[in-house]
Amino acid sequence: MMMHPTSVAVLKQITQTLFGTIDAEQVDIAKWIGAEV
Question: What pTM, to 2 d.p., does this model score?
Fold first, then answer.
């Protein structure tokens, strides 16, 4: 999978933001993951 460095940086930022809010939205994320599975 080819990705531009900018896209990688954006994905990293998004990932860090998501992981930063996991503690606040742990239940919602668990429901979302459960719905995906």
Answer: 0.39
Residue numbers of the domain that contains 19: 5-34
So what's the pLDDT on residue 13? Answer: 87
How many domains is the chain partitioned into structurally? Answer: 1
Segments in 1-37 forming alpha helices (H): 5-20, 26-36
Supply the DSSP symbol for 1: -
CB environment 9-35: b (16+ within 10 A), e (fewer): eeeeeeeeeeeeeeeeeeeeeeeeeee
pLDDT digits (tens, 9 = 90+) for 3-35: 677 888 888 888 888 777 666 566 676 677 777
